């Protein structure tokens, strides 16, 4: 005899309730037989006890507490039958539960935190879980990570965790190696995924490539969902150097591959034909401004379908005189209204602001660092030492420093040595090799293949010392550089800050040693200001050169030219 019990379950992912029938078999016959057997046994035992007392039977008779062999066999058989029926009942219940689990439930229309691959049109919507966080927790995150955000219109909270992002499963896989977003990623992603133009001001090594790479891929997916998958370049990333362009292309590779997209890397110093062939297959192009502008001018690159443009290290590109190339490239991509434009920069000078005002709309600005106005400051995690030396003593002192920096347990530490000129870099490389040090170099007199080989040897640890000119001072992500040595001070204090920024990355501490001579005394005042701002000691020998800061001269108009912030609205003047 069996009984049925009905229960209701609410399946996860939807509000629909499903009735599940559970069948429980109750074996009453088993219970009845067992009860009768136990009563009969008790009666027989009590009769035997009375008879034994009365007749005074000897102890050789059958013990009172042992049932007879016939009773025992009957009891065992009944038990076997009962167990068999119980197994059948359990099996039936298990089968019913399995059928209930296989019931398919149509999910209700809710706002998911993870989209399916069939829903690439979903843009960013701030999830309820993020909105529910107390404002004090958000404020603490912004303060701790020194994040300042300026956003016209709709504002978003930083995505403190990857779970707050609306992404297809395929794009979550490349993120699995990271525990949580970096500050620039957390602050920028909500705005970029929502389609906003954005300027990010942050130090190199802060995760900027992924900050713009993920939104670029999502932007292309949404375009393809709207108009159907098509050929042609849909996203452009412009960077100042070949090495940085190559690095960005490698880092974007896993993201693009997960979305079924191809990345092409375009830069000068190598033949054009392979790059032109790669452009025809690419959805994302990473390029230096000079080579990309050449390809656009001769008709080899068509950027008319590009709707997502990134200017990485924008301030450095302007410093190198690429402004006209950048303007031509942006002009080839279409109007600002049909394009999402993203700019990442280490500083926020007037010329960068003017470029942003020309090509961006309703721009969001995210600054990560202790300078909300975007002024350049040295990383406070870097210990800065300045040694005033005689010009001829520099190379001898460099050898001494390298032996000290790689002594004993520190023998495997990576050290980056900066020189000002190509010839100087080649000479220092030869000097160090003659002293028995294993060293590689990158500078403008080397071919692209040689430079890439040297960088790879330094990254992999085959060589522990890399001699470089300022070509490697910006953007390159060389992990675990323990120390930077400036053999010759750069031409500007901005380049100095970017040089020493090769160490102390990803939250780690670093060391920067600068050999300063009387030839560099015109920059002593600016260097002293950087040291003081970072709360670093200022040597007395350096103070003797003076603290005056020389005013910057405009390239065309000289020292009396005044920069105007074009992003500010003009003041209306009324005459009486």
From TrEMBL:
Its EC number is 3.6.4.13. Residues 189-366 form the Helicase ATP-binding domain. Gene3D superfamilies: P-loop containing nucleotide triphosphate hydrolases (3.40.50.300). Residues 1-29, 35-58, 66-81 have a biased composition (Basic and acidic residues). Residues 397-546 form the Helicase C-terminal domain. SMART domains: DEXDc, HELICc. Keywords: ATP-binding, Helicase, Hydrolase, Nucleotide-binding, Nucleus, Ribosome biogenesis, rRNA processing. Belongs to the DEAD box helicase family. DDX5/DBP2 subfamily. This is RNA helicase. It comes from Trichodelitschia bisporula.
């Amino acid at each position: 005899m069996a009984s049925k019990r009905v229960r209701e379950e609410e399946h996860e992912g939807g509000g629909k309730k499903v009735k599940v029938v559970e069948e429980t078999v109750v074996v009453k016959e088993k219970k009845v037989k067992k009860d009768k057997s136990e009563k009969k046994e008790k009666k027989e035992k009590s009769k035997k006890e009375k008879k034994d007392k009365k007749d005074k039977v000897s102890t050789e008779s059958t013990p009172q507490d042992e049932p007879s062999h016939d009773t025992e066999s009957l009891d065992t058989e009944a038990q076997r039958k009962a167990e068999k029926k119980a197994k059948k009942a359990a099996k039936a219940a298990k089968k019913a539960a399995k059928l209930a689990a296989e019931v398919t439930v149509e999910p209700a229309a809710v706002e998911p935190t993870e989209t399916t691959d069939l829903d690439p049109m979903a843009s960013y919507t701030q999830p309820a879980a993020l909105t529910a966080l107390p404002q004090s927790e958000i404020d603490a995150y912004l303060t701790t990570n020194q994040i300042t955000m300026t956003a016209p219109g709709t504002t978003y909270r930083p995505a403190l965790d990857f779970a707050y992002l609306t992404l297809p499963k395929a794009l979550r896989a490349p993120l699995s190696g990271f525990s949580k977003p970096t500050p620039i990623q957390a602050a920028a992603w909500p705005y970029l995924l929502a389609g906003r133009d954005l300027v990010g001001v942050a130090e190199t090594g802060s995760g900027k490539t992924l900050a713009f790479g993920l939104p670029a891929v999502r932007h292309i997916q949404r375009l393809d969902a709207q108009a159907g998958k098509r050929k042609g370049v849909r996203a452009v990333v412009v960077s100042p150097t070949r090495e940085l362009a190559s690095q960005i292309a490698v880092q974007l590779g896993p993201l693009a591959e997960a979305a079924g997209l191809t990345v092409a890397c375009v830069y000068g110093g190598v033949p054009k034909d392979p790059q032109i062939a790669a452009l025809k297959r690419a959805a994302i192009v990473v390029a230096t401004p000079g080579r990309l502008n050449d390809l656009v001018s001769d008709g080899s690159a068509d950027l008319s379908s590009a709707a997502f443009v990134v200017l990485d290290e924008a301030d450095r590109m302007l410093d190198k005189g690429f402004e006209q190339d950048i303007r031509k490239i942006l002009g080839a991509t279409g109007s600002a209204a049909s394009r999402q434009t993203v700019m990442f920069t280490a500083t926020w000078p007037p010329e960068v602001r003017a470029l942003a005002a020309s090509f961006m709309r309703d721009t969001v600005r995210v600054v990560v660092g202790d300078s909300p106005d975007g002024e350049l400051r040295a990383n406070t995690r870097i210990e800065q030492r300045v040694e005033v030396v005689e010009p001829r003593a520099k190379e001898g002192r460099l050898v001494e420093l390298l032996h000290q920096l790689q002594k004993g347990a520190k023998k495997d530490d990576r050290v980056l040595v900066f020189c000002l000129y190509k010839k100087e870099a080649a000479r220092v490389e030869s000097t160090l090799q003659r002293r028995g040090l294993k060293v590689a170099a990158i500078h403008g007199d080397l071919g692209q293949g040689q430079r890439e080989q040297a960088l790879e040897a330094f990254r992999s640890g085959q060589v522990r010392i890399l001699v470089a000119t300022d070509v490697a001072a910006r953007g390159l992500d060389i992990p675990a550089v323990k120390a930077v040595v400036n053999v010759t001070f750069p031409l500007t204090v901005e380049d100095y800050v970017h040089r020493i920024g090769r160490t102390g990355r990803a939250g780690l501490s670093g060391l920067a040693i600068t050999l300063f001579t009387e030839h560099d005394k015109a920059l002593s005042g600016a260097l002293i200001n950087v040291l003081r701002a970072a709360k670093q000691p200022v040597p007395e020998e350096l103070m003797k050169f003076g603290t005056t800061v020389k005013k910057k001269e405009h390239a065309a108009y000289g020292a009396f030219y005044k920069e105007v912030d074009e992003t500010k609205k003009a003041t209306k003047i009324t005459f009486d």
